[in-house]
Each structure stands twice: as structure tokens, then as C-alpha cells.
Write a structure and sequence with these properties.
Elements (H helix, E strand, L loop, with lengths): L1 H35 L20 H10 L4 H14 L9 H4 L6 H31 L4 H13 L4
């Protein structure tokens, strides 16, 4: 019984695919017919060319006869006068002018953690000094030995 159901499914699938192919062929034929025969819908609008020549030739003659009115010259002179006066800037923030280093955001994010570590380091150093003092070591001798080691050139 299962084979009959499968055969029916296959038969219907092939029929559906054939119908789909027919519809696609019809759509292609319609598209080809529309391309070959220009319709009003397929026509492109005609471009409108505009002339920038004045319609009245007298207008250009009038403008040339009058010449510049002097307003432009006055405006240019006022701008030149403004440039001659020194422009004094009272405050310049150098931090805003200088570019930031590429790792500035990393340093900003790590700063809080470094503060904690610095405090812990100072506490640890203080504890070490207290322990040495409890052992009755002379602090001046320890400091002198440390300074001598630092001053010694390394090979």
C-alpha cells in the first residue's frame, strides 16, 4: 500500500512540475511579445532640453552697460579688513588639539585596577619592612645593601 501512495505522490509532483513549466513558458512568451511591440507603457518619456540662452537679447546688453554695482567690491573690501585685524584666541586647550595615543582607552580602563594594585603593593612593602624590623635587622644596613646592588653595573 505504501508503494501506491508513493507512486501517487510522484505522479502528482510530475504533473505539477509540468503545469509550472507551461505557465513559465506562457509568461516568457508574453514578456517577449511586450518587448517586440512597443506599447504606451513601455515607451520612455521624451527628454526636455532647456536652453540657457536668454530669450531677450536686450537683457544681456543692459547688464553689460550697467557694469558691477559696487556691492560686491564693498563686501570683498570689508572681508579683507576683517582679515587684517589680528584674531586673538584667549584660551587654547592643548589636550583637544593634540591627537590621542592609540592606547588611551586601554589605559583609561585599566587605571582603576592599577590604583588597587598600587595600594596592595605599598601595603606589602610596609609589611616586609615591619617583618625585617621585628627580626632586629638594622634597617640602614639593608638599605645600603640594596643601594649597592642597584649601583653595581650589570654585565
Amino acid at each position: 500500500m505504501d508503494t501506491n501512495k508513493n507512486q501517487k505522490k510522484i505522479g502528482t509532483l510530475t504533473e505539477e512540475s509540468l503545469k509550472r513549466k507551461e505557465r513559465l513558458k506562457q509568461l516568457r512568451n508574453l514578456a517577449d511579445q511586450n518587448e517586440n511591440s512597443p506599447n504606451e507603457a513601455n515607451e520612455l518619456p521624451k527628454p526636455i532640453f532647456r536652453s540657457y540662452k536668454p530669450q531677450d537679447e536686450n537683457i544681456t546688453d543692459i547688464v553689460l552697460e550697467q557694469g558691477p554695482t559696487g556691492e560686491i567690491e564693498k563686501e570683498v573690501e570689508s572681508q579683507l579688513e576683517l582679515l587684517k585685524t589680528p584674531n586673538v584666541i584667549d584660551e587654547i586647550d592643548i589636550a583637544n588639539l593634540a591627537p590621542r595615543k592609540p592606547d588611551w582607552d586601554l589605559k583609561r580602563d585599566v587605571a582603576k585596577k592599577l590604583e588597587k594594585l598600587e595600594r596592595r603593593t605599598q601595603k606589602a612593602i610596609a609589611e616586609l619592612i615591619r617583618e625585617r624590623l621585628k627580626k632586629n635587622l638594622d634597617l640602614s644596613q639593608v638599605v645600603n645593601v640594596g643601594a649597592a646592588i642597584e649601583a653595581k653595573p650589570s654585565d
